[in-house]
Every structure is written in C-alpha cells, then in structure tokens.
Design goal:
homodimer, about 230 residues, mainly alpha, two-stranded antiparallel ribbon, 11 helices, about 5% strand, DNA-binding
Chain lengths: ~230, ~230
DNA sequence: CTATTCCATGTGGTCGGACCACATCAAGTA
DNA sequence: TACTTGATGTGGTCCGACCACATGGAATAG
C-alpha cells in the first residue's frame, strides 16, 4: 500500500471515530508527517485527494480560515468526476441529461410545500423576471433547479443534481448559442418555472414531475441535444 | 491558481481535444514536469487527483501496464466521495438507501429484456442458489444489482448505483449481524431476485420497479435502518 | 496612552535532487 | 540454445530549502 493511502486511511478513521468534525482542522502538514512517520510529500498527496473529494479545504496564512479545515461539499467531487469523464467522452451527455431528468422529477414529486427552499426558489424566479442578461439568467436558473431539488430533503440527490449540472455547465452555456431566439426561449422557461413551482406548492407532485421532465427535455431538444429520456 | 491545478487543466484539455484516449499513456512524470516547466511534485499531485477520480491508473515498472494510463472508472470516484462524506456523517445512510431505491427502480423499469447484462444477472442468481457463504452471497448480490442497473443502458446511473453500493458496503456487511435468521433472509432475497428478473424479462417494467423497491427497502428495514423511501 | 509600523511565527505552495523498488529487455555468457 | 546479468525507464518516497501569505504581538512614533 502506498504511503499516501496510509495517510488517507488514518484521516478517514479520524472521521469515522468522530475525532474530526465539520469545521475542524487537520494537524499541520509538517506535524502530521512527523506524527505518522511519513514524508510531508505523502501527507500532501493525501490532502490533495481529500480536497478533490470536497472533504477539506486548504488555506494558507494564519488564524481563521488558515490551515486545512474540514468541509462538506460532496457536489464538488461528484461534479469534478463527472466533468472529467465527460471530457474523456466516456460519459455521454445524453445519459447525464437523462439522469438529471430522473433525479429532478423525483425531487419535485417529493418536495414538501413547506420547505424554505421553495421560498428561495420563488425569489429566484422574481430575479429572472427582472430581465437579467443571458449569463445571469442561466446562473439564476441553476440555483432555481438546485433549490427545487433541495426541497425534497435528500442531500444525496441534491448533491448529484448539482454535480450533474456542473459537469455539463460549460456545455450548456454553449448550447444557448444554438438557440434561434433567446428572448423567446427565456420567456418560455420563465413560464414553465412558474408552472412547476405552482404544482409543487399545491402539493401536486405528479404534475410537477411531468412538467419538470418536459421542461428539461424541451430545453436540450431545442438546443440540439438528443435526450433519449 | 496553484501549480497542480494548472497541470490538471492541461491534462483535461488533452482529454477534451481527443489527444489522450482510453488506454493511452500520460507522458512520464519527469518529462511532463519539464514540458510544463513545473516541478515533478506538482505533476504528481495532479495525477493523484486524476487517480482518485478514476481517470488514470499509475503503474510502476516498465513495458505494458507501466506508466500512467488512462482508464474510465467513474464509479471509483463517486464511491470514494460518497464513502468519505458518509464517514463525516454528512450524508445520512437513509438518504443513500433512498437514492439507491430511486435509481434502481428507474433502471429496472427501463431495462431492455434483450440486454446481455440480464443473462449475466441470471447466472449470478444461479450462483446464489448454489449455497455460498454469507460473504460470497453478498458479493454476488452486489454484482446482480449492478447487472440489473446496467441493463437500462445509462452509464451515469450505473456508475452512481455502483458508488452508492460501495459507499455503504462496509455498513451493509455489519447489518447482516442484526438479522435474526440469515438463512431465511437469504432464501427470501433469492426468491425476490427471481421475481424481479422475471418481471424485467417479460417487459413489465412497472412491476419490476415496485418489486425492486420493496426488495431493497425490506432488507434495510429488516436490518434496522429507517429508509424513508 | 494611543496609534502605527514592523517583524517573528506558522501555515500551505513549490522546487530540485536524491534514492528506492519494480518490470522489462537486450547484451553477454555458459 | 538457454540462462544470467546489467542497463534502462517507470512510479514511490524522502529530504531540505525557499516562497507567499496572514496573523498577532512587539517595537516605535505621536
């Protein structure tokens, strides 16, 4: 077993044993290296992996926000992984879109009308009505769909949703250039968003699921991506 | 931007540009370091991340299987990420089980009866009938469910299924100890597997989805995990 | 006494060089 | 021909040094 994997195992055990909590800090690289009797190089390689996994964040300097602190951003890892494998062309974009439809349909069908995430979603729609530019509109769109998925209360599904979105973010931005009339599309998307949110708020999960599926598939179809779902 | 991120970006661009294909090899660490005018340390940190993401595999020695070769194992990355975040107690096991039910239900409902994965699934069931030990039984069970999900033909869903399974693998193994009568449970699981596969083979996706959901939820409920789905 | 400046300290980030273990392959040898 | 041996090239590990950065306290000017 390689040395950095040993370090990784030690740190993971600290997590499992509850000795390392969210917001906590890992020992300094030099200290950890001495403690585990390995080189700082190996410690650093382990930390790089944890960082890529969205488990820690390394910060230079001193005081607050310095050192290597424990965070919880699973979507970071999932997104990076999906993005890389998409780059190698071994994750078809169509499959990603299909998965997104699957997860998001489930999420809205399970969303609880009293969830505070829905209030945030409503505010985001107001922002999209205020006539932002294309880039700003897409940013709000991302946050809207994320808020919707959070209303279902399953953090795994939310994280996967966010990562799927991140994986094809650059791709989706390109798609807008394929659209014949962005203003018309934006108007349609806004109306569909309202309809989805209304269905969720009135507790009609089935209708919300159908609407969101049609919403996502319609967009990618219009932009020229064949979503088999 | 940190140096290893620069290296990471360069390699990712090679992927995007199609200059680095599956089975291909990265330049040697020392060569890449000189080419990009960075230290070997930074190159290695970038490779560590790619390795964690299931994009490359580093092999020592010489000749075939040596050097850093491009692979495509997205489930590795997703599984490691979910496992780590589960260790930090920020991904509830119940959410993972619920997500698994969601994905697998969809997969069997969409499975194509002519898929070769279903033939493999049938063989695995024969193996489980041959009376293996608990550990072997669980290993076959993992592969059976994975084969089922592959029959839907969506690699993203399959990868996520595999990673969810991996994330709670150790956890699930512990659960068997909670079961009052393993032989009885194993017998029930075998019968349920047959029923699920039959439903898929006869094209009754809806029935298969219901059966697989009940199958998974029933198991975890019996083992003492509250699966809200 | 107060406010400012400055430096000691500790953090991660980067670098170059050295050596090791390993696997292959070619040259040399029996 | 068959075996042995060494050269070569790969990743794995370690060390020591230096840098950039952020903080906080000490020294200093007012």
């Amino acid at each position: 077993m390689r040395t950095h994997e040993l370090v990784l195992g030690w740190i993971e055990r600290q997590f499992s044993d509850g000795k390392l909590l969210l917001g906590g800090r890992l020992p300094a690289e030099r200290a950890l290296a001495e403690q585990l009797q390995v080189s700082r190089t190996s410690v650093r390689e382990a930390i790089r992996i944890l960082e890529a996994m969205g488990v820690v964040r390394a910060g230079v300097g001193s005081g607050k926000d310095a050192g290597t602190v424990v965070i919880a951003e699973p979507a970071t890892a999932l997104g990076a992984a999906l993005r890389l494998h998409t780059a190698t062309r071994h994750l078809p974009v169509a499959d990603i879109v299909e998965t997104r439809v699957l997860l998001e349909s489930w999420a809205v069908s399970r969303a609880r009308p009293e969830s505070p995430a829905l209030a945030e979603a409503a505010e985001l729609l107001d922002g999209m009505d205020a006539g932002p530019g294309t880039e700003e509109f897409l940013a709000l769109d991302v946050r809207f769909h994320l808020a919707l998925s959070e209303a279902a209360g399953n953090v795994v599904v939310s994280a996967m949703m966010a990562s799927l979105r991140e994986a094809i973010e650059g791709y989706a931005a390109e798609l807008t250039k394929n659209l014949p009339d962005w203003d018309a599309t934006a108007g349609r998307l806004r109306a569909e968003h309202r309809a989805i949110l209304d269905a969720v708020n009135t507790g009609d999960g089935g209708k919300a699921a159908r609407l969101v599926a049609a919403h996502i598939e319609g967009y990618y179809r219009e932009a020229g991506v064949a979503a088999s779902g």
